[in-house]
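Subject: design request, 324 residues
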């Protein structure tokens, strides 16, 4: 485990709020020079704590629908598991692939424009790997609300730090041209890439690229620019609780309460599995249990039960399909 001081935590937090901020802007916020910020960012990358920078893109506004697949393996050797993961990672339809420990073994989320596309994709998948899937659980992934990593601030955390969540799913459809789509693809792989480099890569001008990024943000196609932190190096872990409610009318009250918790990182909405899906970044399972017990105590007659899992490894996270 790598211990971080308060300055490194503040830098990571600011990069998570907006990873396109300059080191000068970050330095002004944390009262450090740009040289100090640059040095610390390089050190965080060298130690593998910063994996990369990514852009949260709401592809539903481009006409895509999300399906989530949970898998439980059977008769799987380490070699076969690696092959299955590689298959999903390389597939043009997937945008999230992660290994799990707990209720399920693998989580895959795909973007498609037509239900028939998903059926075709899954039929081909089953032709290759059906004998290795003991159980398949599907849901329509409607929306996700992602919150900043306020747990990084420790004692400095305040409720106001939660801010507006990034929202993927829903909203008015947006029509974009090929250049905008290519800009999104580039930003999805590196949120900190300069407009100058994007312009050169796409044979455009810096002014054009800058204006188009601003427009994509205004249209809410781009929801945010984040930093991908190697959580396990800091001894943090991603836990998800799938909650079945005894009193559904309390759902919004529960959400309002849980959003104040600095360890909450995401609330998912899907059709087909449970009533409430809440995700936390915590130090250990004991801390996760404490959060859930507090929730049950606060709403004693509202929660019927919950199951949970934790993410052991994220293999792919890319908020944009391969093709338009």
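Subject: RE: design request

Done. Sequence follows.
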């Amino acid at each position: 485990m790598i211990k971080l001081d308060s300055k490194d935590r503040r830098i990571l937090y600011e990069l998570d709020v907006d990873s396109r901020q300059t080191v000068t802007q970050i330095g002004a916020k944390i009262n450090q020079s740009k040289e100090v910020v640059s040095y610390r960012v390089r050190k965080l990358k060298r130690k593998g704590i910063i994996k990369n920078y990514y852009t949260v893109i709401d592809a539903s506004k481009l006409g895509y629908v999300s399906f989530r697949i949970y898998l439980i393996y059977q008769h799987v050797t380490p070699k076969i598991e690696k092959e299955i993961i590689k298959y999903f990672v390389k597939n043009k339809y997937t945008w999230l692939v992660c290994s799990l420990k707990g209720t399920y073994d693998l989580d895959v989320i795909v973007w498609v424009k037509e239900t028939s596309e998903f059926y075709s994709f899954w039929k081909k998948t089953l032709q290759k790997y059906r004998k290795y899937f003991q159980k398949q659980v599907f849901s329509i992934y409607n929306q996700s609300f992602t919150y900043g990593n306020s747990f990084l601030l420790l004692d400095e955390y305040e409720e106001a730090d939660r801010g507006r969540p990034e929202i993927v799913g829903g909203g008015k459809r947006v029509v974009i041209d090929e250049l905008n789509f290519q800009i999104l693809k580039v930003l999805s792989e590196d949120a900190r890439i300069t407009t100058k480099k994007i312009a050169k890569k796409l044979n455009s001008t810096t002014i054009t690229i800058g204006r188009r990024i601003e427009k994509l943000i205004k249209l809410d196609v781009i929801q945010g620019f984040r930093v991908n932190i190697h959580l396990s190096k800091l001894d943090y872990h991603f836990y998800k609780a799938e909650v079945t409610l005894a009193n559904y009318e309390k759902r919004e009250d529960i959400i309002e309460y849980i959003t104040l918790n600095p360890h909450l990182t995401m609330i998912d909405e899907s059709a087909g599995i449970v009533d409430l899906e809440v995700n936390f970044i915590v130090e250990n399972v004991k801390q996760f249990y404490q959060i859930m017990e507090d929730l049950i105590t606060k709403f004693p007659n509202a929660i019927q039960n919950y199951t949970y899992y934790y993410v052991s490894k994220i293999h792919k996270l890319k908020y944009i399909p391969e093709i338009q």
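The longest strand covers residues 303-317.
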